[in-house]
Amino acid sequence: MNIKNISPKQIEIIDLTKLGELEGKEIKLQGVIHRLRILPNVTFCILRLERSLIQVVAEQQHDLSKFIEGDFVEITGIVRSSKLNDRAILNKNYEISLVTINLIHRPKELPPFEINKKELNIKPDLEFDMRPISLRHPKKRAIFKISETIANSFASFLELNGFTRIFSPKIVFAGAEGGANIFKIQYFDKMAYLAQSPQFYKQYGVGIFGRVYDIGPVFRAEKHNTTRHINEYISLDFEMGFISSFEDVMALETAYLKYLIEQLKEKNSFEIDLLEITLPTFNDFIPSIKLKDAHEIVFKEIKKDYRNEPDLSPDEEKFLTQWSKKEYNSEFLFITHFPTSKRPFYTMDDPENPGETLSFDLLFRGLEITTGGQRIHDYDMQYNKIVSFGLNPSDFESFLQLHKYGVPPHGGLAIGLERLTARICGIENIKEASMYPRDINRITP
Amino acid sequence: MNIKNISPKQIEIIDLTKLGELEGKEIKLQGVIHRLRILPNVTFCILRLERSLIQVVAEQQHDLSKFIEGDFVEITGIVRSSKLNDRAILNKNYEISLVTINLIHRPKELPPFEINKKELNIKPDLEFDMRPISLRHPKKRAIFKISETIANSFASFLELNGFTRIFSPKIVFAGAEGGANIFKIQYFDKMAYLAQSPQFYKQYGVGIFGRVYDIGPVFRAEKHNTTRHINEYISLDFEMGFISSFEDVMALETAYLKYLIEQLKEKNSFEIDLLEITLPTFNDFIPSIKLKDAHEIVFKEIKKDYRNEPDLSPDEEKFLTQWSKKEYNSEFLFITHFPTSKRPFYTMDDPENPGETLSFDLLFRGLEITTGGQRIHDYDMQYNKIVSFGLNPSDFESFLQLHKYGVPPHGGLAIGLERLTARICGIENIKEASMYPRDINRITP
Predict the structure, then answer these.
(1) Nearest residue of A to residue B103 by CA position?
(2) Looking at domain B138-433, which of 3.20.20.30, 3.30.930.10, 2.30.30.40, 3.40.980.20 is its CATH number?
(3) Do B172 and A148 touch (CB under 8 A)?
(4) Is B334 an 8 Å CB contact of chain A?
(5) How many Å lie between the alpha carbon of A42 and the closest alpha carbon of chain B?
(6) Which CATH number is associated with domain A16-105?
(7) CA-derived radius of gyration, chain B
(8) pLDDT tens across B113-158, in order?
(9) Does B254 touch chain A (CB under 8 A)?
(10) pTM of the predicted model, to two decimals?
């Protein structure tokens, strides 16, 4: 009998931003040959690593003619200074002088497009059909390093603020948002649904842990196929108890955004440079206006009359963040007090303004990226609002447990990860900020 | 028009482990009255905070008779030293001498069980039916602070090891594991499925980022209703490229488990004490044996003959971790080389042992908590194995893109969060380690 001992072993990581410390030393790298240029006296081999490219230079004693682009290789080489200007290279002040190169694996075929061009520039359908391959393009994958920082910094910021992470179930018996936009599942001999939001579970979480956050997928069976919608997306959710106003939620989001901008500067300077991202800035605050005032501004400034509309139109969202940038140097703008009819049944009405709710959206670069507000915590108020919405309280028995047995005043928000990622990266179509977007026509790959 | 400025504002957190630094000072707390004991000269009011209890003592000038257990209150009081012995209290060396108390909200009703007893001890059906309330019990919610650390330390450990976080889609067109255990969704005019694992997307991730991890829900339509199964669970997944052996994956998991134990000591000493958890220990390694040798040990030691079985039985899993604890001081044990027929079609066969795979399970305290192994990276090998499994390669067109256009040798694993949480907490039924467990009979709350 053969018993092995498995000892703990971590990955050896070379910090490429500190390549200078290794100048003159030999290092080992594994990667893909991204570009290969064989000249009479020298060969330039650009390797694609986990996050960036690196230039490997082979002097003429090395014959690299048996290698092709796409090969997975292991190289050793000496770090030496250089001056490179490809934004996809990290670190641009160094290159590797080749010592040895070994083939690890050669692909069966070359993909039908060139992954090593500066811009991918292929048709969207091909790009999405071949996403496992097209995401290898340095600029495509960089988007998801930004997205990763947005999600991870949401978690770390909320952890610093005493929030507990929850994992809400995705198979549910009823939808939080109500309405027809819900996917049905055959669950053994019952019908079940895919969660449209973790809303109920976040509110339960307030009663359990006081403050909770949840990062996970949500599902909306919306039929529109636009650059602003996908049918499965990652929702960054939090909910906090003992608030004194729904503005507490907005103030915490403002603090998160400040923190996020710092985290992006710290962790993603490579991607910021590669994608030529302009990070959002704001002065010490984000301006906040009521929906009806927002309609007035739009009417006054660009003569479009939405003053009787219960919601913002896409062109208002576009105009209003330009306006707030000009007037307040803020690319973010809160819109508050949406009408009762346009907000879900768990939203708290404004006692001072009948028909309006203590709710908000956050607009950023022309797009709503957050919905939030104060929720109802009183049992009778919640029961009556369910009835006034034409819903049946017995369908909300589990949810009403919360109010019956008590929960403190609370509120929260949901940020769409793909929307925020897209707008930070300056991408128009949010599908590009989803690795494998699902829309009315697409569930592959 | 009214424009407000929303300034960033974080939550003021009192670190209860450092309450000594505030001795003699007045602090403000918000919480629930967990227990109220009114004596002639003094009232003891135990408040339930986000994570722990705290004792508030009201001298006789305070009349607390108008308060009841379950009330949400805000108090101010002076920190003073004490000596308490309720494990649910943090910090046991201090209490609060009441200065002011205000009612924030009173629930409509009291729940049908007492949340403030040392043990909840109610019937499981009632506990799960009323999970939004029963999870408020200090010992119940403590389980999920352990679970939170397991998930968050998985993320931070892998980040330190150069992994990129991905979010794999949950609506998919085919199942990674194959077979009948898959939930169907009506996706507009198509049929779709709920992901059984992020397997394909993790493997795509290796081609994109080299090393990836994913934390999210997965769905299994398994009909058995046991203490070891739930139909929706959180899977902690990683996949790493450029491995030289499937043991690289096992060595990284071993390093994670060491890291996790340190993180639990650092972040969860409160819950470890409250739940009387014995943290797992191992010497400098985790032992690893082949499946057939595991069967031999079981046969030799307890005379049960599973030597012709292609998998481990539950009683073998129980016995084997006892055995490895006795023999190697390790409550963890790797079992390797499962037969080809019992592992999915993407598993690499062992070239040296036909019919066996380069795969492993990790057992811990009698339960399989991890499945992993090396995957096939070669196109022809993967194509042929799909065919030999009786599957149709054209159903795996997206997946085979990966192999056709190339991916380096790679492997990975999946850890069941609820299983690992349950075993660390010493819980027999993994449903108790899921906030809102889904089983064949339950999709509520």
Answers:
(1) A408
(2) 3.30.930.10
(3) no
(4) yes
(5) 27
(6) 2.40.50.140
(7) 26
(8) 999 999 999 999 999 999 999 999 999 999 999 999 999 999 999 9
(9) yes
(10) 0.98
